[in-house]
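Progress narrative, work stream C.
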Amino acid sequence: MQVKSKFLKKLNRQERVVEEVKLVLKPHYNKKHVTKEEYKDILRRAVPKICHNKTGEINPTKIQALVEAYVKKFRKKHKLGLA
């Protein structure tokens, strides 16, 4: 029973992180700053990074900074023609 509750807690935390990242990433996707594949890739990279931090906090400002950095990176890569 203890393992199940721990797993559910982890899953709930991960879902909250996913929603927070989507909230920040959605405007960039709607403005066509990132493609669908880049959107998925940023989501895939950002969520584990946030979930596995040492403090265990879900800080919206830090999440926004991380996502903004990923968007900037992908836009730069796209601009150079590497994508």
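Work stream C, second folded protein:
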Amino acid sequence: MVERNLVNVLLLGGGFMLIFTSFQTLGNIEQTIIDSIKKDLPSFTGDGYTSLAIIYAALSLSNWVTPSVLSAIGPRLAMVIGAITYCLFMASFFVPHVALLYGCSVVLGAGAALIWTGQGMYLSQCSSGDTISRNSGIFWAMLQMSMFFGNLLVFFTFQGKTHIDETTRSIVFAVLIAVGIVGLVFLTCLRRPSTSGDAPVELSHSVEPRQAFLNAIRLFQTPRMILLSITFVYTGLSLSFFSGVYGSSIGFTNAIGTSAKQYVGLNGVFIGVGEVLGGVAFGLLGTRTTTRWGRDPIMIAGGVLHMAAYFLIYLNLPNAAPFGNTDALSYIQPPSALVAMGCSFLLGLGDACFNTQCYSMLGGVFKSQPAEAFSIFKFTQSVAAAASFVYSSYCGLHVQLLILVVLGIVGTITFCVVEFAVKRERPTLERDYEK
């Protein structure tokens, strides 16, 4: 018989897979779509990078409130409310208006804080020290399957198009919203986590909202969390790069050919392949590798994969690619679609390394304060993502890559420092347990 908590993790992963099939696909093509809307509707002056920056800024601010909210309503209801805001944001694209776009971006940012902190808390409640790596890997692999379906839809519907017309846009939006609603239904089916038996876990709400907020502040000030926050910042920068900037840069590089817009969708598929392979590998092997070698080898592997991807992107795409259609060239002439898709795969696989190990660290080491720990994770990650989308409108591709390289190296080192400290504590804890 399948354990109840594993069923909960599968339902959780399925719900997030469907919701983010919608949102990640839309985020990947948002700047490209808005560029086409502006040509059809000159009065519309919205900007995709600005919208994404607003989302992550609102997410970062809301994360300080979410531990208090979760202490009052619990993680399951928080995730349902958050999922509704994703559907509302996607629906706003049927009525192109700047105020509506940016207003729904703010609402989505607040909802994203609820859904992600609720997810982290719920996943932690469904896991033990023995199953947290497995469950993190399973959830991450299922979540990243979202990169396949939506982006395959984009690949086929954008085929042969240099301009995304209103009919094509409407079809894509309608399908993505319908998929998001099904994901919302999945989240409403989540059950209370259970202990090793069938008895439900007592999910205490005894922590007052004000106390939950103060606990998050105190946890954020600990040396261990300060070091991890540097890693979290890097995950936010890389997230914004591969989810918004890189795909748009491929689509704007005219020298790739008439299929450049199609490759925006295919880029998301290859990122998804890397994400899913990483999630499955670390889900199946996570407990074994964490116990024997720790989390640091996987984290270092992720850093190496990302450095290789950034170097190849530097060689392949022109510096002006993030800003709009360009005829400029880089060192590989003409730019190679094959290299571009290979970099997408490396970005996805490396991101799986970083995120599965961050989830494992937070769910295992900070299990007594899951809401506070995951809210800090999403706060630092989303602040970095918001900052990245702001400077993406002004900084060329090469400067963006340099920032990613520096933060990627530093973030990998700081995570390993914390992991080494956890390893040193583990034998002591085991001896105390034996006594």
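The chain has two domains: 1-190, 209-434. No further action is required on this item.
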